[in-house]
Amino acid sequence: MRFASWSWGGRHHVGLISPCGSEATPLAVTDAERGALGIIESLARGEPLPTASGARLPVDVITLRSPLPRPLRGLFCVGRNYRAHAAELATTVFASSMPEKDAWPIVFTKLAECVVGPFDSVRLPGAAVSQQIDYESELAVIIGRGGRDIPGSRAMEHVFGYTVVNDVTARDVQMRHQQWDLGKSFDTFCPMGPWIVSADELDGRDTRVRGWVTPAGGQPQLRQDGRTRDLIFDIPTLIETCSRGITLLPGDVIATGTPAGVGMGLNPPQWLRDGDVVRVEIDGIGAIENRFEMAR
Asked: So what's the pLDDT on residue 54?
């Protein structure tokens, strides 16, 4: 199933998207402002899926929101988790801080408040704040059943589904503070969507992740193209790691890392500018596409 959140008729709705992606069916929920989070939590308690409430609508007439407009807490994010991406960063200012090969996953957070919808604009900060805005195309895992100290051998039982995120990053801020949270968490820096695909319909352990950048007035450029089977730390390992001593909750989000081809890794680096558009597409889920606009 595909779980989505959208606006239509002056209200927020939560419901199901048809397998072809063309129709939306609202469900009877009382907390549509939270997107699919309430459904994930109720299913984790063993409650049935809410019934349909209202007519099916063409997706073209609704405004898709993030399926989790305000995640339960900050997103768990993983850095340098594709070998080719780790290699391209080894030629940048990150070279001096590269960890031992395959030691442990690098895990950081993005504030929940930076999440925006799959087709919303991303706000570029002024030059005094950051001049090095980058994109990162990523598969995100949505936890369905919580737990602590989850063994990797049972981890996939805790997956509710998957969605697409762009882990937008201010690279100069990331380096300036010698940690990643601030440079990852500017307002609007986490486009998410277009919906959540349930784990019974997609195996996130082997799917294709691609990212395009269309410069203002230019043509689309395929910058990133990788498969999640090439993750250094696979999804079960990430769930096991994030749950070590920490209770994962239904609705938690784990962004699994980005393939090679980020702007920082190009020679010379290519930062996002006013009017650029970034599209992230993952096989079996769909695509998000966001215009980057200077704050005015």
From this structure: 86
Claim to verify: residue 102 and residue 39 sit in the same structural domain: no
Residues 237, 153 share a domain: yes
Number of Cβ atoms within 10 Å of the Cβ of 255: 29
Q: How far from 259 is each of 9, 59, 83, 95, CA to CA, in Å?
A: 39, 30, 8, 17
134: CB partners within 8 A, 6+ apart:
168, 169, 170, 171, 262, 263, 264, 271, 272
Alpha-carbon gap, residue 283 to 143, rounded angstroms: 20
d(CA 196, CA 204): 12
| Cα-based distances in Å from 222 to 4, 95, 205, 213, 288 | 27, 25, 22, 7, 14
pLDDT per residue as tens digits for the range 215-252 = 999 999 999 999 999 999 999 999 999 999 999 999 99
- Domain extent, residue 160, equals 75-294
CA 206 – CA 292 distance, rounded (Å): 30
Number of domains in the chain: 2
Q: Is 70 inside any structural domain?
A: no
Residue 93 pLDDT: 59
Q: 84 and 188 share a domain?
A: yes
